[in-house]
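Residues pack. One example:


***
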Amino acid sequence: MSGRRTKEGAVFDTTAIRESILALDDYVANRTALLLVDPYNDFLSDGGKLWPSVRPVAEQVDLLPHLCAIVEAARRTGVVVFYVPHRRWREGNYDGWRHPGPWQILTDRGSFFADGMWGGDWHPDLAPQPSDVMIKQHWGQNGFANTDLDFQLKQRGIEKIILVGLVANTCIESTARFGAELGYHVTLVRDATAAFSPEAMHAAHEINAPTFAHAVLTTEGVIAALEAN
């Protein structure tokens, strides 16, 4: 718990107070979008190639139930869900590249999110619906880079983006940072994402997020904010 001690010795939970205030922010449905990043079987399902690495943190924060709850709340309240997928693996994706990044090399070697394979399909509880928007696949970690995400958001008059999915300190953080640079109001959700270690989660939400995010909420706080509008 993050707190502040008064002269009388009582400790206030400043994190909870801050989140309750931020949850009152104006998340109007036609100005708000939920960005669902990489909800692949390889990340979220038993048997997924990356599930063993993400599982300890994912289970600690109840990731899948929270993702399902926040996606359902977005659709129910009229907030458009944008799928922001990492590029599915295909043989030869990076042939001829001079500078593939470390994660791209790892993805290529592990054939993560393989196109046409079970691991590269959506988790069955998070399958896209007709009202959702499918963004072009990103090559690296930034969902805006070399995709139509910014264009699709602007065409719908979106001003506020809420990011959930995988992974907290890579694709979520990179996309959120760039979104802030583009002028969007950015909300992160601390229990609707996961990472490969508790240390990475801590860095993403407690060290890095305060430098660019406008709000860091819980799933409960986000749903309350959506329902308040």
The two ends are 29 Å apart (CA to CA). The domain at 17-227 is CATH 3.40.50.850 (Rossmann fold).
